[in-house]
Amino acid sequence: MNGQSVQQRPLAGLKVLEMGQLLAGPFASAMLAGFGAEVIKIERPRTGDPIRTWRKIYRGTSLWWLSLGRNKKSITLDLTRPEGQQIARRLAAKVDILLENFKPGTLERWGMSYDALRELNPRLIMVRVSGWGQTGPYASRPGYANVAEAMGGIRYTTGYPDRPPVRTGVSLGDTLAGLHAALGALVAIYHRDVRGTGQGQVVDVAIYEAVFNMMESMLAEYDKLGYVRERTGPKLEGIVPTSTYRCADGKYIVIGGNGDSIFKRLMNAIERPDLADDPRLAHNDGRVAHEEMIDRAIEEWTSRHPYEVVFQRLTEAEVPCGPIYSIADIVRDEHYIARGMFEEVDLGDGDKVKIPSVVPKLTSTPGGTDWPGPPLGAHNDEIYRGLLGMSEDELRRLQEAGVI
User: How far is CA 176 from CA 71, 187, 237, in A?
Assistant: First the structure.
């Protein structure tokens, strides 16, 4: 457990009701929970969020769930049943934010449109995450992130020009959408509370739009020049040199030498003072025109030396460079360790596991993990009795009926 206690964290007192499952919405609420928000996560009775059984399992639970469910309070509720929907409305009346990532129209079918919930809670902020947004001709399509990544532009530019487009090794579209959702929620809170309007609103996050928001200058380049950015492998088109180079021992080094003064230092470090002083290469536009020559010169040098020699020489020359890390490299890296990037959380019986620390790092009000992803329904009693005031008989009846 790192950071301050939950009562001291900057979002303490903020109540969030998380509906939906898997990644985009839950990632957003995990960000808020890491900074002290009270997140009540609704899960299906008996099965729970599918993430609980995805990828690598340890002691019956996904290791992914431990970080994605951190600091959340798990309750079970069958939202497909009228009584479950009624309970969900009661919960929505008592929170600041309702965060959902169902297919558009689902909440409306359950009688939980924003207009309906606003009558119960005028201050409610509803954050809605979907593949294509709540409006438009694609709104009703299934919204998986892999398709949204493809249509958002990032897949087209990822990979080598002579091969099919590829994806990254993580669920990038979902997490980008989750970050946008967390930002949107806090912007809406600022408008409601800090500016004193008292008004709730809808935050409409589309996964493809979160991806498209990362596409830099591509729209303007196409609009004015008809230019389409293509796949360039390890390089970044129009910025030279910035690529990955092979060393004599088979390891690879990433080098960013595209600043004008950095380029000079890089060329001197690789024993090419002629290129360092070449007026054609003094600025990026000239280097772009001679990219192949520059990359060939760099790799001719790196291929003659082992990685450690290359890294040391370039570091001494103050040229940005570094290795390509696997997770096995990351956990041993002194900088990750010094920055406190791993939290150890207790799994019970003295067993502990490392999960990523909460970021970004705040000097006065840092985030932290108070508990890992909890067991399914672990907070039913606390929320249903404490927040909604249900009796023991009512809880027993709901449980026997399969509603919770």
Answer: 21, 17, 23
